[in-house]
Amino acid sequence: MFALINISYLTAAVCFILGIKGMTRPSTAVRGNLIAATGMLIAVVAALLHHAVISYAGIIAGMLLGAAIGIWLARSTETTAMPELVASLNGIGGGASLSVAASTWLNAIAAGETPTAGWSIAILASILIGAVTLTGSIVAVLKLKGRLGDSSRKRLWQFATATSLAAVVVAGVLFIAQGAVSPLILGALVALALLLGVGLVQPIGGADMPVVVALLNAYSGLAGAATGFVLENQGLIITGSLVGASGLILTAVMCKAMNRSLPNVLFGGAFGGQADDG
Amino acid sequence: MEMFVLSFTIFVLALFVGVELINKVPPTLHTPLMSGTNAISGIVVVGAIISAGSGGMDPTLASILGFIAVTLATINIVAGFLVTDRMLNMFKRKDS
Predict the structure, then answer these.
(1) Where are the transmembrane segments (chain B) (predicted)?
(2) Domain ranges of chain B
(3) DSSP string of A197-258?
Protein backbone atom coordinates (compact mmCIF):
# COMPACT_ATOMS: atom_id res chain seq x y z
CA MET A 1 0.00 0.00 0.00
CA PHE A 2 2.84 2.34 0.93
CA ALA A 3 4.42 1.92 -2.52
CA LEU A 4 1.09 2.39 -4.29
CA ILE A 5 0.40 5.63 -2.39
CA ASN A 6 3.83 7.02 -3.16
CA ILE A 7 3.60 6.11 -6.83
CA SER A 8 0.27 7.94 -6.88
CA TYR A 9 1.95 11.05 -5.44
CA LEU A 10 4.64 10.77 -8.11
CA THR A 11 1.96 10.48 -10.81
CA ALA A 12 0.23 13.55 -9.37
CA ALA A 13 3.51 15.49 -9.36
CA VAL A 14 4.14 14.57 -13.01
CA CYS A 15 0.61 15.78 -13.83
CA PHE A 16 1.37 19.09 -12.10
CA ILE A 17 4.63 19.54 -14.01
CA LEU A 18 2.92 18.81 -17.35
CA GLY A 19 -0.01 21.01 -16.31
CA ILE A 20 2.16 24.03 -15.44
CA LYS A 21 4.13 23.50 -18.64
CA GLY A 22 0.87 23.50 -20.61
CA MET A 23 -0.38 26.64 -18.90
CA THR A 24 2.58 28.66 -20.16
CA ARG A 25 1.33 28.49 -23.77
CA PRO A 26 -2.04 29.78 -25.00
CA SER A 27 -2.79 26.78 -27.23
CA THR A 28 -2.30 24.19 -24.48
CA ALA A 29 -3.38 26.20 -21.43
CA VAL A 30 -6.89 24.77 -21.01
CA ARG A 31 -5.60 21.21 -21.28
CA GLY A 32 -2.77 22.01 -18.87
CA ASN A 33 -5.27 23.12 -16.26
CA LEU A 34 -7.26 19.89 -16.74
CA ILE A 35 -4.11 17.76 -16.39
CA ALA A 36 -3.23 19.55 -13.14
CA ALA A 37 -6.76 19.03 -11.81
CA THR A 38 -6.51 15.32 -12.62
CA GLY A 39 -3.24 15.18 -10.70
CA MET A 40 -4.99 16.72 -7.71
CA LEU A 41 -7.72 14.07 -7.84
CA ILE A 42 -5.08 11.32 -7.83
CA ALA A 43 -3.30 12.93 -4.86
CA VAL A 44 -6.55 13.22 -2.87
CA VAL A 45 -7.42 9.54 -3.44
CA ALA A 46 -3.88 8.54 -2.39
CA ALA A 47 -4.14 10.63 0.79
CA LEU A 48 -7.45 8.96 1.68
CA LEU A 49 -5.68 5.58 1.59
CA HIS A 50 -3.00 6.73 4.07
CA HIS A 51 -2.63 4.33 7.01
CA ALA A 52 -3.00 7.11 9.61
CA VAL A 53 -6.48 7.98 8.34
CA ILE A 54 -8.91 6.12 10.57
CA SER A 55 -12.02 8.29 10.59
CA TYR A 56 -13.60 9.78 7.50
CA ALA A 57 -16.45 11.87 8.94
CA GLY A 58 -14.46 15.10 9.31
CA ILE A 59 -12.74 14.65 5.96
CA ILE A 60 -15.97 14.07 4.02
CA ALA A 61 -17.75 16.93 5.77
CA GLY A 62 -14.83 19.29 5.10
CA MET A 63 -14.59 18.26 1.45
CA LEU A 64 -18.31 18.68 0.79
CA LEU A 65 -18.38 22.07 2.52
CA GLY A 66 -15.20 23.21 0.75
CA ALA A 67 -16.40 22.01 -2.67
CA ALA A 68 -19.75 23.77 -2.25
CA ILE A 69 -18.11 27.06 -1.25
CA GLY A 70 -15.49 26.65 -3.98
CA ILE A 71 -18.03 26.06 -6.76
CA TRP A 72 -20.11 28.97 -5.54
CA LEU A 73 -17.09 31.29 -5.44
CA ALA A 74 -15.87 30.29 -8.90
CA ARG A 75 -19.33 30.62 -10.48
CA SER A 76 -20.53 33.80 -8.80
CA THR A 77 -17.39 35.91 -9.11
CA GLU A 78 -17.57 38.66 -11.71
CA THR A 79 -14.93 38.52 -14.43
CA THR A 80 -13.44 41.79 -13.24
CA ALA A 81 -13.12 40.50 -9.68
CA MET A 82 -11.05 37.44 -10.62
CA PRO A 83 -7.66 38.81 -9.45
CA GLU A 84 -9.20 39.43 -6.01
CA LEU A 85 -10.57 35.88 -5.98
CA VAL A 86 -7.15 34.43 -6.83
CA ALA A 87 -5.61 36.49 -4.02
CA SER A 88 -8.27 35.29 -1.56
CA LEU A 89 -7.75 31.66 -2.58
CA ASN A 90 -4.06 32.17 -1.94
CA GLY A 91 -4.78 33.28 1.59
CA ILE A 92 -7.16 30.36 2.07
CA GLY A 93 -4.38 27.97 0.99
CA GLY A 94 -2.01 29.61 3.48
CA GLY A 95 -4.65 29.18 6.19
CA ALA A 96 -4.86 25.48 5.30
CA SER A 97 -1.06 25.03 5.71
CA LEU A 98 -1.19 26.85 9.02
CA SER A 99 -4.02 24.61 10.29
CA VAL A 100 -2.33 21.42 9.12
CA ALA A 101 0.92 22.31 10.91
CA ALA A 102 -0.84 23.27 14.15
CA SER A 103 -3.05 20.18 14.04
CA THR A 104 -0.11 17.84 13.37
CA TRP A 105 1.87 19.41 16.19
CA LEU A 106 -1.05 19.06 18.65
CA ASN A 107 -1.53 15.42 17.61
CA ALA A 108 2.16 14.66 18.16
CA ILE A 109 2.17 16.34 21.58
CA ALA A 110 -1.03 14.52 22.58
CA ALA A 111 0.64 11.24 21.58
CA GLY A 112 3.49 12.08 23.94
CA GLU A 113 6.16 12.48 21.28
CA THR A 114 9.17 14.74 21.82
CA PRO A 115 9.70 16.79 18.68
CA THR A 116 13.21 16.85 17.23
CA ALA A 117 14.77 20.20 16.34
CA GLY A 118 14.46 19.53 12.61
CA TRP A 119 10.79 18.70 12.92
CA SER A 120 10.15 21.79 15.02
CA ILE A 121 11.83 23.93 12.35
CA ALA A 122 9.54 22.42 9.70
CA ILE A 123 6.47 23.12 11.87
CA LEU A 124 7.71 26.65 12.46
CA ALA A 125 8.29 27.29 8.73
CA SER A 126 4.90 25.91 7.85
CA ILE A 127 3.14 28.06 10.44
CA LEU A 128 5.08 31.23 9.64
CA ILE A 129 4.73 31.06 5.86
CA GLY A 130 1.11 29.91 6.09
CA ALA A 131 0.13 32.72 8.46
CA VAL A 132 1.97 35.44 6.52
CA THR A 133 0.29 34.21 3.33
CA LEU A 134 -3.12 34.28 5.04
CA THR A 135 -3.09 37.82 6.45
CA GLY A 136 -0.90 39.20 3.66
CA SER A 137 -3.48 38.01 1.14
CA ILE A 138 -6.33 39.54 3.11
CA VAL A 139 -4.58 42.93 3.02
CA ALA A 140 -3.83 42.45 -0.71
CA VAL A 141 -7.49 41.69 -1.45
CA LEU A 142 -8.67 44.76 0.47
CA LYS A 143 -6.15 46.90 -1.44
CA LEU A 144 -7.18 45.43 -4.80
CA LYS A 145 -10.80 46.20 -3.97
CA GLY A 146 -9.82 49.72 -2.98
CA ARG A 147 -11.27 49.25 0.50
CA LEU A 148 -7.87 49.86 2.04
CA GLY A 149 -5.98 52.93 0.90
CA ASP A 150 -2.24 53.34 0.91
CA SER A 151 -0.98 53.99 4.38
CA SER A 152 0.28 57.41 5.29
CA ARG A 153 1.73 56.09 8.55
CA LYS A 154 4.65 54.23 7.06
CA ARG A 155 6.81 54.64 10.15
CA LEU A 156 4.19 53.05 12.40
CA TRP A 157 3.94 50.04 10.09
CA GLN A 158 7.71 49.75 9.85
CA PHE A 159 7.82 49.67 13.64
CA ALA A 160 5.04 47.08 13.90
CA THR A 161 6.69 44.90 11.24
CA ALA A 162 10.14 45.10 12.82
CA THR A 163 8.74 44.39 16.29
CA SER A 164 6.70 41.39 15.23
CA LEU A 165 9.62 40.08 13.20
CA ALA A 166 11.90 40.28 16.25
CA ALA A 167 9.24 38.68 18.45
CA VAL A 168 8.76 35.88 15.90
CA VAL A 169 12.50 35.18 15.95
CA VAL A 170 12.59 35.04 19.76
CA ALA A 171 9.45 32.86 20.01
CA GLY A 172 10.76 30.67 17.20
CA VAL A 173 14.07 30.02 18.93
CA LEU A 174 12.20 29.21 22.17
CA PHE A 175 9.87 26.91 20.28
CA ILE A 176 12.75 24.94 18.77
CA ALA A 177 15.04 24.90 21.82
CA GLN A 178 12.35 23.96 24.30
CA GLY A 179 11.18 20.94 22.32
CA ALA A 180 7.89 22.81 22.49
CA VAL A 181 5.99 21.67 25.53
CA SER A 182 3.54 24.52 25.79
CA PRO A 183 0.76 25.17 23.28
CA LEU A 184 0.93 28.79 24.47
CA ILE A 185 4.13 29.43 22.53
CA LEU A 186 2.51 27.93 19.45
CA GLY A 187 -0.48 30.22 19.88
CA ALA A 188 1.79 33.25 20.35
CA LEU A 189 3.76 32.31 17.23
CA VAL A 190 0.60 32.04 15.15
CA ALA A 191 -0.64 35.43 16.39
CA LEU A 192 2.71 37.12 15.74
CA ALA A 193 3.04 35.59 12.27
CA LEU A 194 -0.48 36.75 11.40
CA LEU A 195 0.49 40.29 12.46
CA LEU A 196 3.70 40.05 10.46
CA GLY A 197 1.73 39.25 7.30
CA VAL A 198 -0.31 42.45 7.71
CA GLY A 199 2.81 44.51 8.45
CA LEU A 200 4.68 43.24 5.40
CA VAL A 201 1.96 43.95 2.85
CA GLN A 202 0.25 47.02 4.31
CA PRO A 203 3.02 49.53 3.37
CA ILE A 204 3.15 48.36 -0.27
CA GLY A 205 1.27 50.53 -2.75
CA GLY A 206 -1.99 49.30 -4.26
CA ALA A 207 -0.53 49.49 -7.79
CA ASP A 208 2.02 46.82 -6.92
CA MET A 209 -0.57 44.37 -5.60
CA PRO A 210 -0.48 41.98 -8.62
CA VAL A 211 3.22 41.38 -7.95
CA VAL A 212 2.55 40.91 -4.24
CA VAL A 213 -0.20 38.39 -5.00
CA ALA A 214 2.20 36.47 -7.27
CA LEU A 215 4.78 36.43 -4.49
CA LEU A 216 2.21 35.29 -1.91
CA ASN A 217 1.31 32.52 -4.36
CA ALA A 218 4.93 31.38 -4.28
CA TYR A 219 4.82 31.54 -0.47
CA SER A 220 1.75 29.31 -0.32
CA GLY A 221 3.67 26.76 -2.38
CA LEU A 222 6.63 26.93 -0.03
CA ALA A 223 4.25 26.59 2.93
CA GLY A 224 3.02 23.37 1.32
CA ALA A 225 6.60 22.13 0.95
CA ALA A 226 7.27 22.91 4.63
CA THR A 227 4.15 20.93 5.53
CA GLY A 228 5.63 18.11 3.45
CA PHE A 229 8.72 18.15 5.67
CA VAL A 230 6.47 18.10 8.75
CA LEU A 231 4.61 15.02 7.51
CA GLU A 232 7.63 13.48 5.74
CA ASN A 233 5.46 13.37 2.65
CA GLN A 234 7.43 13.55 -0.60
CA GLY A 235 4.37 14.28 -2.72
CA LEU A 236 3.78 17.47 -0.79
CA ILE A 237 7.45 18.44 -0.90
CA ILE A 238 7.72 18.04 -4.69
CA THR A 239 4.52 19.90 -5.44
CA GLY A 240 5.09 22.63 -2.88
CA SER A 241 8.59 23.43 -4.09
CA LEU A 242 7.41 23.26 -7.70
CA VAL A 243 4.76 25.89 -7.04
CA GLY A 244 7.15 27.89 -4.84
CA ALA A 245 9.87 28.07 -7.48
CA SER A 246 7.61 28.62 -10.47
CA GLY A 247 5.75 31.25 -8.43
CA LEU A 248 8.99 33.12 -7.69
CA ILE A 249 9.98 33.07 -11.36
CA LEU A 250 6.50 34.20 -12.37
CA THR A 251 6.81 37.05 -9.85
CA ALA A 252 10.10 38.10 -11.43
CA VAL A 253 8.59 37.89 -14.93
CA MET A 254 5.62 40.03 -13.85
CA CYS A 255 7.91 42.58 -12.22
CA LYS A 256 9.82 42.87 -15.46
CA ALA A 257 6.61 43.25 -17.47
CA MET A 258 5.51 46.06 -15.12
CA ASN A 259 8.96 47.61 -15.22
CA ARG A 260 9.51 47.28 -11.49
CA SER A 261 12.19 45.58 -9.45
CA LEU A 262 11.20 43.09 -6.79
CA PRO A 263 13.23 44.58 -3.90
CA ASN A 264 11.73 47.95 -4.76
CA VAL A 265 8.20 46.55 -4.57
CA LEU A 266 8.85 44.71 -1.31
CA PHE A 267 11.01 47.06 0.65
CA GLY A 268 10.28 50.36 -1.06
CA GLY A 269 7.30 50.50 1.30
CA ALA A 270 8.32 48.53 4.35
CA PHE A 271 11.78 49.75 5.18
CA GLY A 272 12.36 53.40 4.45
CA GLY A 273 13.63 54.03 0.95
CA GLN A 274 11.66 56.01 -1.56
CA ALA A 275 8.53 54.22 -2.67
CA ASP A 276 7.87 55.48 -6.16
CA ASP A 277 4.18 54.90 -6.59
CA GLY A 278 4.45 53.67 -10.16
CA MET B 1 18.25 12.11 9.47
CA GLU B 2 18.56 10.02 6.31
CA MET B 3 14.90 10.69 5.63
CA PHE B 4 15.53 14.41 5.96
CA VAL B 5 18.45 14.33 3.51
CA LEU B 6 16.33 12.41 1.02
CA SER B 7 13.43 14.85 1.42
CA PHE B 8 15.78 17.80 1.12
CA THR B 9 17.28 16.37 -2.09
CA ILE B 10 13.83 16.06 -3.60
CA PHE B 11 12.99 19.59 -2.44
CA VAL B 12 16.04 21.15 -4.14
CA LEU B 13 15.57 19.18 -7.38
CA ALA B 14 11.88 20.12 -7.56
CA LEU B 15 12.84 23.79 -7.08
CA PHE B 16 14.97 23.58 -10.22
CA VAL B 17 12.15 21.93 -12.17
CA GLY B 18 9.84 24.74 -11.07
CA VAL B 19 12.30 27.38 -12.24
CA GLU B 20 12.79 25.68 -15.60
CA LEU B 21 9.06 25.35 -16.24
CA ILE B 22 8.39 29.06 -16.40
CA ASN B 23 9.98 30.85 -19.29
CA LYS B 24 8.71 33.33 -21.82
CA VAL B 25 5.12 33.37 -20.59
CA PRO B 26 3.00 35.83 -22.61
CA PRO B 27 1.62 38.55 -20.27
CA THR B 28 -2.01 37.55 -20.96
CA LEU B 29 -1.27 34.20 -19.34
CA HIS B 30 0.26 35.68 -16.15
CA THR B 31 -3.00 35.76 -14.18
CA PRO B 32 -4.31 32.34 -15.30
CA LEU B 33 -0.92 30.78 -14.61
CA MET B 34 -0.85 32.33 -11.15
CA SER B 35 -4.38 31.08 -10.56
CA GLY B 36 -3.50 27.59 -11.82
CA THR B 37 -0.37 27.21 -9.72
CA ASN B 38 -2.33 28.55 -6.77
CA ALA B 39 -4.88 25.75 -7.25
CA ILE B 40 -1.98 23.27 -7.34
CA SER B 41 -0.69 24.61 -4.02
CA GLY B 42 -3.97 23.25 -2.65
CA ILE B 43 -1.98 19.97 -2.57
CA VAL B 44 -1.71 20.74 1.13
CA VAL B 45 -5.11 18.98 1.21
CA VAL B 46 -3.05 15.78 1.43
CA GLY B 47 -1.69 16.92 4.81
CA ALA B 48 -5.13 18.18 5.79
CA ILE B 49 -6.75 14.80 5.08
CA ILE B 50 -4.12 13.02 7.16
CA SER B 51 -4.46 15.37 10.12
CA ALA B 52 -8.27 15.42 9.97
CA GLY B 53 -8.53 11.65 9.75
CA SER B 54 -5.86 10.52 12.18
CA GLY B 55 -7.72 11.39 15.38
CA GLY B 56 -10.49 9.23 16.78
CA MET B 57 -14.17 10.07 16.67
CA ASP B 58 -14.25 12.54 19.58
CA PRO B 59 -13.43 16.05 18.46
CA THR B 60 -10.15 17.46 19.76
CA LEU B 61 -8.59 20.81 18.88
CA ALA B 62 -6.31 18.92 16.50
CA SER B 63 -9.16 17.23 14.63
CA ILE B 64 -11.14 20.49 14.48
CA LEU B 65 -8.11 22.21 12.96
CA GLY B 66 -7.84 19.26 10.56
CA PHE B 67 -11.46 19.72 9.51
CA ILE B 68 -10.85 23.45 8.96
CA ALA B 69 -7.74 22.62 6.92
CA VAL B 70 -9.63 20.16 4.69
CA THR B 71 -12.38 22.72 4.10
CA LEU B 72 -9.94 25.56 3.28
CA ALA B 73 -7.75 23.41 1.03
CA THR B 74 -10.80 22.08 -0.85
CA ILE B 75 -12.07 25.64 -1.44
CA ASN B 76 -8.61 26.53 -2.74
CA ILE B 77 -8.55 23.56 -5.12
CA VAL B 78 -12.12 23.59 -6.43
CA ALA B 79 -12.45 27.35 -6.90
CA GLY B 80 -8.85 27.57 -8.17
CA PHE B 81 -9.20 25.08 -11.01
CA LEU B 82 -12.71 26.24 -11.95
CA VAL B 83 -11.80 29.92 -12.08
CA THR B 84 -8.62 29.17 -14.07
CA ASP B 85 -10.73 27.27 -16.58
CA ARG B 86 -13.17 30.20 -16.80
CA MET B 87 -10.32 32.66 -17.41
CA LEU B 88 -8.69 30.52 -20.08
CA ASN B 89 -11.96 29.92 -21.91
CA MET B 90 -12.54 33.66 -21.93
CA PHE B 91 -9.24 34.17 -23.75
CA LYS B 92 -10.05 31.42 -26.21
CA ARG B 93 -13.29 33.04 -27.24
CA LYS B 94 -11.63 36.43 -27.62
CA ASP B 95 -8.83 35.04 -29.77
CA SER B 96 -10.89 33.00 -32.21
Answers:
(1) 61-84
(2) 26-95
(3) HHHHHTTS-GGGHHHHHHHHHHHHHHHHHHHHHHHT-HHHHHHHHHHHHHHHHHHHHHHHHT
